[in-house]
Amino acid sequence: MGSSTSCCCSQEDDEGSKIGAGNASWRIFTYKELHAATNGFSENNELGEGGFGNVYYGKMSDGLQIAVKKLKSMNQKAEMEFAVEVEVLGRVQHKNLLGLRGYCAGAEQRLIVYDYMPNLSLLTHLHGQVTGEVQLDWKRRMKIALGSAEGLLYLHHEVTPHIIHRDIKASNVLLDSDFEPLVADFGFAKLIPEGVSHMTTKVKGTMGYLAPEYAMWGKVSESCDVYSFGILLLEIVTGRKPIEKLPGGAKRTITEWTEPLIVKGRFKDIVDPKLRGNFDENQLKQAILVAALCVQNEPEKRPNMKEVVSLLQGYGPKGKVMRMRLESDKNGDDLMALDQASDDGDGNHYDESSAYGVFGAMEVQKLQDPYKRYGDRRMAKHR
Ligand SMILES: Nc1ncnc2c1ncn2[C@@H]1O[C@H](COP(=O)(O)OP(=O)(O)OP(=O)(O)O)[C@@H](O)[C@H]1O
Ligand SMILES: [Mg+2]
């Protein structure tokens, strides 16, 4: 699909070409059929707005429900994102990655077609209109965390060449009717040539989720996704945004908020109050510890996604993998001690004066609120 943008679909054609080659059954759509499916891209069909453009709900004449992402403006940057997204999507196939249904690349338009996800994005449930309904119980949250991690594991370790997503965040985790997560949006993805451990690139992604070495020096590796995943995991567990605006206007990152509580072993104070105490305590501890490992400042100390998945699955390595990676890490030792301390049921015996940070947060002033664009006006319109 390297020449994706050169494939044109005419606005006059009624039927798009069926390509269906490769690993998934995607095809080229015509502008006319997408126009018809989305009610002329009507405001009522709008599911959301992102950096690329608007996303519309659509229903094809055969009943297939789709989501159509329509490029806002045609410029080189947007064209590149479109090409990367289509190129990458054409290569991946995994139960936790949102695959490509097709696309339309005419003279004036660029549109990407996906399967419609009836439960929209994780963002909608954690911070949008439906948060009050608490559809995200603990079991679903853990399923979303594990599924997203499995999608990332596939990108980092299974597909060739390996892929770094670079924009892991709550709005890019979509939820199907069973709340199975599908990681979406590969417009910023980077394909990693074999043997390359990291590259230096222009920084893309969303503030609040960016690994420090990437935000500051543009150093990108799989570990940047691991960091973003750690932030996402904290978000899933706490129900808090990666960056919060405090009353005086200052901003606080989720790591800054959780850090002192983790150090003191106050795991139960970290968990989202909307769960009303309905959570599995061991899983909670494990999830927080995994998140804390992922958001360490030094990329080499973070686990890889294989380790993250097995830790989240609760397999043997509880302690083992962590110990292995954190042997010489003072903070990591504290985490391990913490784990044991909280196992004793004494979550509060840490002295605050010794609370020297388990992972160290980024400077608050440098960060912006990634949510200010979203009004979340569209939940459940189409269900
Ligand atoms: N396949 C889909 N099914 C249902 N809803 C979708 C689908 N794709 C996107 N959406 C909705 O549209 C919203 C906007 O998506 P989009 O990817 O354009 O922007 P974003 O993720 O919020 O920001 P960014 O441009 O930085 O990725 C999502 O948050 C989600 O609610
Ligand atoms: Mg997105």
UniProtKB/TrEMBL annotation:
Residues 41-316 form the Protein kinase domain. One of its GO terms (molecular function) is protein serine/threonine kinase activity. Pfam families: PK_Tyr_Ser-Thr. It comes from the Eukaryota. PROSITE patterns: PROTEIN_KINASE_ATP, PROTEIN_KINASE_DOM, PROTEIN_KINASE_ST. Keywords: ATP-binding, Kinase, Nucleotide-binding, Serine/threonine-protein kinase, Transferase. ATP binds at K70. Belongs to the protein kinase superfamily. This is Protein kinase domain-containing protein. It comes from Nyssa sinensis.
